[in-house]
Amino acid sequence: MYNIVIKPSILIVDDLPENLDVLKNALEDQCVVHAASDGPSALRLAAMEPKPELILLDIVMPGMDGYEVCRRLKRDIRTQGIPVIFVTAKFDAKDEWEGLQMGAVDYITQPISPSIVKARVRIHLDLEEKNRRLSEINERLTDSMKQLSASKEALLKANSLQSAIFNSANFSSIATDAKGIIQIFNVGAERMLGYTAVEVVNKITPADISDPQELIAHAQALSVELDAPIAPGFEALVFKASRSIEDIYELTCIRKDGSRFPAVVSVTALRDAQKNIIGYLLIGTDNTARKEVEEVLLTERKRLDQVMQDKNIELENAKLAAEKANLAKSEFLANMSHEIRTPLNALLGFSYLLGKEELSGEAKPLVRKIHVAGCLLLRIINDILDFSKIEARRVQIEKALFRLSDVLDNLSNIMSVNTADEDIELTIFPLPNGINQLRGDALHLEQVLINLASNAIKFTRQGYITVAIGVVNEGGTTGHAAFCGARQRNRHFSRRTE
Q1: Which of 5, 311, 317, 391 has the highest local Cβ count within 10 Å?
Q2: Which CATH code is given to the segment(s) 295-394?
Q3: What 3 state SS string does the chain have?
Q4: Average pLDDT over residues 42-66
Q5: What is the pTM assigned to this prediction?
Q6: Domain 172-286: CATH superfamily, name plus number
Q7: Would you list the domain boundaries of the chain?
Q8: pLDDT digits (tens, 9 = 90+) for 170-225
Q9: Which fold is adopted by the domain 397-492?
Q10: Best CATH choice for the domain 9-138 from the list 3.40.50.2300, 3.40.50.720, 3.40.50.10330, 3.30.450.40
């Protein structure tokens, strides 16, 4: 293993080469020597990395003398820490005093003694090394002090927070030893339970201020839950916590004056560095307000449930009454429709027979219009009857043979009355081959077509309306017919009935 010795670096500044040679020969065995023959060169070399650890500086030089070089070195933040030794022929005490005042660490007069120069340089290099190490130690000490101060501040905050928490009057903090004897009784516990700390510390356990019947019930419940015999008392309060099981429960506490209040208690086992239990911490809060709110909410919920039940009964009764009213209305409409249809059918019969007679030119169209209007009124009555049947759930769809051409003829006759005073042309296309004879409910089909055509007329100011019939598909003895229409310039209405 090799020991690598790093020589210190020094800078010699002198305008005379012979003086530089003397100093180099004296110091190069123990230093790395750099030389400058004028002030500007010295300033440049001093600021370069790695910087010299010591500068030997002549005073009497042309241009920039040694005093000015020293001044500039001490003003420059990069070089102001480098120690300077004046080596000069000026031996007057005043010159030495001036050099030392400028910041030089030593003053050597020429002619020099190499051994004395070496010794002084060695002393100042050692001193500089010690100063550097001392500076590093000071920096480390400063960092340590800062860390210590930060740790102290954090500890003070933690202690303040812990004290604020423990002394809070909003919840009770009770700490016991391993046997359950109370050791700490905070302000919150005093406020909630009415005891002072002096009255309970080292005297009683938390079980002594708890409802005994609830302790028995709590112990029995834990025994069943954990399948282990648990005695009533303090053991029941801390049994789960002693086995590192989270334990939060509700318990009735007894104040010094004998009054009782519900409390929510959280229990934690306190352990030393070897994980041995050294005590227990019980944190409790008064649960009275929450209990009162729960009771109010429960009462209000029961009231709302009763109101909802009453409203449901009212709605059910109203529903039954509405259904009875609808049924009565449907029966009334059905009866009235039947009563109206009887004379109307007679009127239609008379108009039909009258239309067969030889009438004057103006009378025959009028009779035809009376007949068509009567048919339209009959269909309206039939619609009312259908609505009544729908509400009464007594609708029946017929499946009888009928001629589709008859349905379309009736449609044409009825719609011609509606379009007589309008600038509208109604066109019904001829039937495709083979679909005139159909099976179904002709009356309802005709009602649907009348409604569609009536809507088309209603929303058409001028133009034309078409009704077209086509076969959608057919096979065997069954098929489906489609009806579509109507058109009015850039508007289009369509429906399909199968």
Answers
A1: 391
A2: 1.10.287.130
A3: CCCCCCCCEEEEECCCHHHHHHHHHHHCCCCEEEEECCHHHHHHHHHCCCCCCEEEECCCCCCCCHHHHHHHHHHCCCCCCCCEEEEECCCCHHHHHHHHHCCCCEEEECCCCHHHHHHHHHHHHHHHHHHHHHHHHHHHHHHHHHHHHHHHHHHHHHHHHHHHHHCCCCCEEEEEECCCCEEEECHHHHHHHCCCHHHHCCCCCHHHHECHHHHHHHHHHHHHHHCCCCCCCHHHHHHHHHCCCCEEEEEEEECCCCCEEEEEEEEEEEECCCCCEEEEEEEEEECHHHHHHHHHHHHHHHHHHHHHHHHHHHHHHHHHHHHHHHHHHHHHHHHHHHHHHHHHHHHHHHHHHHHHCCCCCCHHHHHHHHHHHHHHHHHHHHHHHHHHHHHCCCCCCCCEEEEHHHHHHHHHHHHHHHCCCCEEEEEECCCCCCCCEEEECHHHHHHHHHHHHHHHHHCCCEEEEEEEEEEEEEECCEEEEEEECCEECCEECCCCCC
A4: 91
A5: 0.38
A6: PAS domain (3.30.450.20)
A7: 9-138, 172-286, 295-394, 397-492
A8: 778 889 999 989 998 988 888 888 999 899 999 999 999 899 998 899 888 888 88
A9: Heat Shock Protein 90 (3.30.565)
A10: 3.40.50.2300
